[in-house]
Amino acid sequence: MKSKKKYIVFASLVLALSAAVYINWQLSGAKTPQSAKELGAASYVSATASASDDEVQQTAALSNESKSYFSAEMTKRQATQDKIIDDAKEIFNLESSSDADKSEAEKNVEELLKTFTIQDSIESIVKAKGFSECLCYISEQGVSVIVPKSQLDDTSVLIIDDAVVTHYEVDYDDISVIGA
Q: Could you report the per-residue pLDDT of 36-55, keeping only the tens digit for each?
């Protein structure tokens, strides 16, 4: 008699659990409003808070302005880099150039390519951290990083500083973060 009750209780628990799973499955398939927050949704630690529709529209309007700025600056920088490399190629190709001039030009090109690579790495890291656009300039005075002004806050400055310091040996005081 005792074992029959045990099996009946066990069967009823299995049946109740099965019913709960089925109901949960049916309800989770239902559409929820977009503004409802999903419980248990994963997010990155460095992610920014979600924006309202008005903020998204303002950011989109600013981003068109920002995109044209960043596009123009990237074009200027690429033209400057191409000119420097072309000048170095001319020195290599000139027969009247001395070996000292050629070695100096080679050294300068290697240094520039290293700088370009570091700039690109920093830009890629900053974009991977959630910024839509980024420009990085390395000079003797330090490192300047330009990001959209709408995405700039105290936390983002720390994120950018960290990205720069991990890829380039520079003091935090020599890093400038600029909103455009």
A: 555 555 555 544 455 555 55
